[in-house]
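Hi Q.,

Before the meeting this afternoon, I wanted you to have the adenosine-5'-diphosphate prediction in hand. No need to reply - just skim if you have a minute. The sequence and ligand are here:
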Amino acid sequence: MTSEDFFDAIDSSFILLMTEQETYSPLSGSRQHDPSLLAFIVKDTGGSTKLISHQLLFFPAELMTVQPEKPDLQTNLKEGQRLEYIERRYPEAIRFYQDRIIHTRDTAEKIQAMVAAARLYNRTNQPDRAKAIYDEIRQNYPGSLLNGEIPIALVASLEILKINQVMGRMDEMNTNLRQYLELLLHPPCEYDKNQFELFYQSFKEIVQETSPVIDSLFRELDRQKARTETLIRVLTGPDLIVTSGYGQWKGRKNEMTSIPINPAELTAVYLSVENDAGVQSSMVIDFPEYLRSVSDKLIQKLDPEASINLKVKDNNGKLIFARLNTEDIGYLALPFPQNLPKWSLLLSKNKPGFIATLWKAGSGIYLFIFILIALLMVLGFVFTLYTLNMVLRLNKLKSEFISNVSHELKSPLTTIRMMTELLHHKRVQTEERKSAYYSAMLQESERLSHLIDNILDFSRIDEDRKKYEFIDLDLDELLRNFLESTRERLTDSGFKIRYDCTDTIPPVRVDKDAILQVIYNLVDNAIKFSGKSRQIDISLFSKDDELQLCVKDYGIGISAKDHEKIFDRFYRGDEPQRLGIKGSGIGLTIVKRIIEVHKGHLTLKSIPGKGSTFCVHLPIHANTEI
Ligand code: ADP
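Predicted structure with the ligand bound:
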């Protein structure tokens, strides 16, 4: 942004303001109140001047929009005046005026009758009645002139003040005075300077106690009075330009001229344009006010990135406004052009912020990298949290595992120890009992041995150290031998195992011990989680290119959400824990890993409360090599 851009923008905004006023004003009267617009005048080819909108406190006769007509004073009120002034029959005069107030249709006559009635009430010591009428006048006819020149609202206001003064109602007087001074500041009708001065002086004289509010209202009136006088000089001077040091009207048709007006009491700009029809529109705008109202928008448009610090100072060096983005240093001062007041514009370059620099340099590539790094950092943080959470969870599972395994190890050992002691101390008498004890000890040590196998295998599998020895094996035979060896243990606890293998099963290449461990773990789980059921079905068959070995129970089942998790290490379902069924959480992890090494896979069908079926799928012609 340069200073020229700034001043060009001001010129364009002048044109916009003028166009807006020209479009709206003649048709619909004054447009919405623009506080910087002091006056807008249209002068036609015949030389007649029309004041469309203004901020004048009083009017010179030539600028009044409505020329006052002198009404005929010899109206129907003559009779009242005779009763009042000649015969001095006040009550009858009051009745007469009251009657006119009610019956006349002429506003001027009505107001005159009201004023007369109020005057007589006052004279006959009925101040409250007089006040009521003055109040009514003030409120209902604020824009009317008495006898075509006296602002009636101000007359009524002054009379109310006087009545309150006589009655000693000081508080009321002060409130009234404030209202009436506001009325002088915003005149409801057009009257001349004499009228203004008259009421201004009368109000001033009546003040008994000054207050800060009243003082400031009088000060504002003084200021506005001076401005009004200047404005009137400008508006009524030759060619509407009197105070400008730049001479006569110079503009060509349709070209807008702007000329500064700069007397002590007013800094303004006089704008003027003449259209093709020879009609000249002119306006006087309060420049400081105007600049303040448009500057934000202007600057925002000229310098959207806020790269410039900007200040405007008037001819006395007083700051009019400033937009500062960084600290206040190194300004370049530029004078305003001749068509504007003799002010100065101060500009300084703004040091862009960190992000702005990033954005600008290399069309945003650096910002992109910056965002990317920030994103990676966030991702890294999330990942660390996730891992930490995993590690903590795993640690918890591990410690649960240790406590579970210790228990699993301890219980068969305790049984074996107890029985050994009994046998050692010859406490068991019959051979039959002895044989039962030996068999139980055998079973418990087998259980122990399987558990230890599981733990050792788990650690080998976990660290990828387990060695497999693949041989061609008849699975049917393996299963039958397995069932034979466990039958005793199972029948003891009331379990019935149905084994189903109708096909001729081709041999498969497997590690015998590993597959036995798979079968043991699946059957052991089926027993553990059978609940009240005592039935387990095992089936072996070939389908397409694979062998399927399924272990089915009718026990507690597995909820759908656990179908995948149960193969994770140390994971144990909620239901077994709730039911107090012991376990270590590594059985199925081992099964899964072994089957994967055999290039097979596992499937599970289970309904909670109905039972589960685990199936091992092994490829028949797999060339497994480890
Ligand atoms: P453990 O049996 O020692 O708890 P597993 O790894 O063998 O460990 O099994 C993990 C979990 O899978 C068990 O805790 C149990 O919740 C579930 N599970 C395994 N087999 C069955 C089954 N036949 N019936 C119901 N739940 C089972």
